[in-house]
From TrEMBL:
The gene is Slc35g1. Belongs to the TMEM20 family. This is Solute carrier family 35 member G1. GO terms for cellular component: endoplasmic reticulum membrane; plasma membrane. It comes from Rostratula benghalensis. The keyword tRNA-binding does not apply. Residues 1-27 are annotated as: Disordered.
């Protein structure tokens, strides 16, 4: 027998009428990726040995016959499509932006009701996954309190963000949400004792500057504020809602870091959807705002918001599975670009230079935070290899 390399093998002479040596099995250490060639019978070797009626199999391939040897030297793995994770990120950003546009187009439906529909779609998607993976519906006993707060804060962030989209320009609300990485670093420093450097402080100040440029408080910019939707009171309420949503989303990320991989991500989304739906239903009855849209177009928009939001989450999750978090976070700034484009094309609302300046500050801050974290992770990975 001879080593098979890349599916090619040369026939070896059989001396002395001896039967070819039986290849090692997995337990014997062959074909375990240690650099040793796997021993597979060369073409025609089955009949060469005296009395060798059975066809030999490759021990490193769980019984697969030659030449289907997965561990053979020279066998190339199928290369992943380069840039696929970044493409998924851009697609996710586009779906989220279109869902936000449809939210702006809906008339007479409260943001809490829209959030309730979104939670229903989330539950319908996650429930089969919970059953398939047999994760249960409550999770580990020591992690349930974290899952509860993850669900509460995550759903609160969604409701507040939807409210901000309804009462202020689409681009303004989107830009404010991009300060989330900065708040995540700050909260991780407080609760997880992660390192918080002067660079992080600088990025935080940049993000806050961008938010101020978008909010444009009268005591800094005067009483005449232009480029907003409706009254300045609604604009200020939307700004506060967007900032609170951002802080809640950052808190959710910190909780997920605390939980780690001990809880399946389907279970995390399940808590998000269930607690969000319960909270939305209670709030709707308290505010007496529950009402189905009268227009058929608005009902279609509600369904599309649920589907697009779900699709955006799926593609973002797939992107993070095949691509590093740093490039994904940077590419996710396409959310801002799409928000500006959709606002101009379909809402006929030109952003002011204050909004553009605020967007540049926030995007620079979030991108800087993402690049710094990415470089730190690469440096740590190299140190671990050494």
């Amino acid at each position: 027998m001879v080593p098979c390399q890349g599916g090619e093998a040369a026939p070896a002479p059989v001396t002395g009428g001896k039967e070819p040596e039986v290849p090692l099995s997995r337990e014997d250490g062959a074909g375990t990726g240690t650099g040793q060639p796997c021993l597979c019978p060369a073409p025609g070797m089955e009949a060469a040995a005296a009395g060798a009626e059975e066809r030999r199999v490759c021990g490193c391939c769980s019984g697969s016959s030659w030449p289907c040897c997965c561990k053979a030297l020279g066998t190339k793995k199928k290369a992943a499509c380069p840039g696929l994770g970044l493409f998924y990120t851009v697609l996710s950003a586009f779906l989220f932006s279109v869902a936000s546009l449809f939210l702006k187009k809906i008339e007479g439906v409260h943001s809490v009701e829209v959030s309730a529909f979104r939670c229903v779609f989330q539950m319908a998607f996650v429930l089969p996954g919970l059953i398939y993976y047999k994760t249960g519906f409550l999770g580990p006993k020591g992690k349930r309190i974290f899952l509860f707060f993850r669900g509460f804060l995550g759903s609160s962030a969604m409701i507040l963000l939807y409210y901000a989209f309804q009462v202020m320009p689409l681009a303004d609300a989107t830009v404010i949400t991009f300060s989330s990485p900065v708040f995540t670093s700050l909260l991780a420093w407080i609760f997880l004792k992660e390192k918080y450097s002067l660079w992080d402080l600088l990025f935080t100040l940049f993000a806050l500057t961008g938010v101020v440029l978008i909010a444009r408080p009268p005591f800094l910019f005067g009483s005449r504020v232009t480029g907003i939707e409706g009254s300045y009171t609604d604009h200020l309420k939307g700004t506060i809602a967007a900032i609170t949503s951002t802080v809640s989303a950052a808190s959710t990320i910190v909780i997920l870091r605390k939980v780690g991989k001990s809880v399946h991500y389907f279970l995390s989304i399940w808590y998000y959807a269930v607690i969000g739906l319960i909270g939305c239903v209670v709030a709707l009855f308290v505010m007496n705002e529950w009402s189905l849209p009268y227009c058929g177009k608005d009902r279609v928009f509600l369904i599309l918001i649920g589907l697009l939001g779900l699709g955006g989450q799926i593609f973002l999750t797939k992107a993070l599975q095949i691509e590093k978090a740093g490039p994904v976070a940077i590419m996710k700034t396409m959310d801002v670009v799409f928000a500006f484009i959709l606002q101009i094309l379909f809402l006929n609302h030109l952003p002011t230079w204050w909004t553009v300046g605020g967007a540049l500050c926030v995007v620079a801050s979030s991108s800087g935070t993402a690049i710094r974290k990415w470089r730190q992770s690469l440096k740590k990975a190299k140190q671990n290899e050494i």
